[in-house]
Specification:
Radius of gyration: 21 Å
Order of helices and strands: EEEHEEHEHHHHEHEHEEHHEE
Helix content: 25-40%
Number of helices: 10
Oligomer: single chain
Mean pLDDT: 89
Structural class: alpha/beta
Shape: globular
Length: 334
């Protein structure tokens, strides 16, 4: 199974150093991704999902952002050890990112055909004519007629723009796509079409994907595994069925409890009270303890570590420690 591993992130920590203090955006996250697999990264706004994605792409704005520590082992190489030039060559060819808003991802003064062809020429030794031909094929692949190659982004609807961005991301057949809330700016029917298209193309090209979202329904439909983020940490992760049918972490339970379910009649939903902590002043111990109804006294002082509750299902919560809590946290999962 080890040979099938594409990405292995270990203890990744990213901070933003500002005049108001240090924003602890991503704190010691670890996860793995196999070739062709889809991982859903879920959490509220401000949980650190986008910063984690930018970290994987080595696109964290510096200053004020800084990758403090960690490893990002992609296809056997640590991306944090690679030169800026090598990373520039990797982006688009080996790993691509689809951003939230297609409006800001496209250059308004270049035709969509020119923009896709530019990606192809940058990473593949090909002539302008061949790149143009492949760009036309990529547009057709995402459901846009090739005749629209010479049109500009403003001539496309939001859903069409996002399809163009997907065509650009897939143009060089990368091994990994990071999709950061790719349907947020689209209406519901277009969202479903775009997600179905992404799934279809992912299977066709055997591409692995990290799908960042706050929509648990989207994750259930599109992902193999899920990681739940809270205050810059992954608090629970595992196979999709395990997380949905055997939810462990109080925060994950709260997320599911705040969703309406057509199959059960309840008078009120069960929301999580309180607000996510300020990343400049995170609470001591478990970051969720101020909002947790099940907390123990030690939750206020001891940072939880990954505990494997079933094969591949990890939870950062002291409620699942079988013996007395030690002074220091246990092993990170590997």
């Amino acid at each position: 199974m080890e040979n099938n591993k594409l990405l292995s992130v270990r203890n990744l920590t990213i901070h933003y150093i500002t005049d108001d203090g240090v924003v602890k955006a991503v704190n010691d996250i670890s996860f793995d991704l196999d070739k062709g697999e889809t991982l859903g990264l879920v959490g509220e706004t401000g949980a650190g999902k986008t910063t984690a994605a930018l970290g994987l792409m080595r696109l964290v704005p510096d200053p004020p952002g800084k990758i403090i520590e960690g490893q990002i082992i992609f296809d056997g190489n640590d991306l944090l050890e690679e030169s800026n030039l090598r990373m520039r060559l990797r982006r688009g060819r080996d790993l691509s990112m689809i951003f939230q808003d297609p409006m800001t991802s496209l250059n308004p003064v270049l035709t969509v055909g020119e923009q896709i062809a530019e990606v192809i020429r940058l990473h593949e030794k090909t002539s302008a004519a061949e790149a143009h031909k492949k760009a036309a094929e990529m547009l057709e692949t995402v459901g846009i007629p090739a005749e629209r190659m010479d049109e500009y982004p403003h001539q496309f609807s939001g859903g069409m723009k996002q399809r163009v961005v997907i065509a650009m991301a897939l143009a060089c057949n990368p091994q990994l796509i990071i999709a950061d809330e790719p349907t947020t700016a689209l209406d519901v029917t277009i969202q479903a079409q775009v997600l179905a298209l992404m799934g279809e193309l992912q299977r066709k090209y055997q591409t692995a994907m990290i799908l960042i979202t706050h929509d648990l329904g989207v994750v259930a439909e599109n992902c193999d595994r899920v990681a739940i983020m809270y205050a810059g940490q992954i608090v629970e992760s595992g196979p999709i069925e395990d997380i949905y049918d055997n939810t462990k972490h109080p925060y994950t339970k709260g997320l599911f409890g705040s969703l309406p379910n057509i199959g059960t009649r309840v008078r009120r939903l069960n929301p999580i009270y309180g607000l996510m902590p300020d990343p400049v002043a995170l609470p001591t111990g478990c970051p969720f303890h101020p909002r947790c109804k099940s907390k123990k006294p030690e939750c206020e002082s001891i940072v939880p570590w990954d505990i494997e509750v079933s094969p591949g299902h990890f939870v950062k919560c002291l409620l699942f420690v079988e013996n007395d809590v030690p002074e220091e946290g246990g092993e990170q999962h590997g």
